[in-house]
Amino acid sequence: MKSMNNITPAESVDTNATPEAQQAPAAPAPATEAAPASAPDQESAAAAPQAESAEQNVTAPAAQPAGKAAGAGLSPRALLKQLQQDFPAFRDCLPLSIGIDKQLLARMPGLDRKVMRAALGIHTGSMRYLRAMEKAKLRYDLDGTAGAEVPDTHRAHAKEQLQQRFKKEAERKKAERDAAAADEANRLRQEKLQALASKFSKN
Hints:
Blueprint: H1 19-23, H2 39-59, H3 66-71, H4 76-86, H5 88-91, H6 100-107, H7 113-124, H8 127-134, E1 138-140, E2 146-149, H9 152-202
Antiparallel strand pairs: 1-2
């Protein structure tokens, strides 16, 4: 109940009205679409369709962009495959613009950030992407639109990463060859021992 001090002239009781009118509280005017709205009411009315749309997005996943439905619950490699299908920058392995993660989150609101970072790491660490970066002149957004230039330091970094990758690959192949040679030598030695054991057992 409002205190007497807070009653405005419009809300005060008409002293010339009948007793019944004085006793009956004035009914609030019904809020209709035709009634003029104050500035806050107009802002609320303008925001109502947005709120309704956001609520529909939550309750109706089918109405969401394909990226959101595809990004939910995927592994990093599965997400990367989806990105390659949806966005030219990933499909064509173009040098990605700085802040590509923010672009992805804007286009795919339901995307798991941890999975996204892992998928980006796989993509940007691939040999194909590093080769593209080594000779890149420009960076590109998700849709393949050219943007900022690639500085020399970024190209040099990609080249260094490739060299390290080649070195590790060469070391891995050498280790495999050495292991295969050791296995073969051990096999031949076992065969000789078995042959000797068989020869002495016959004697």
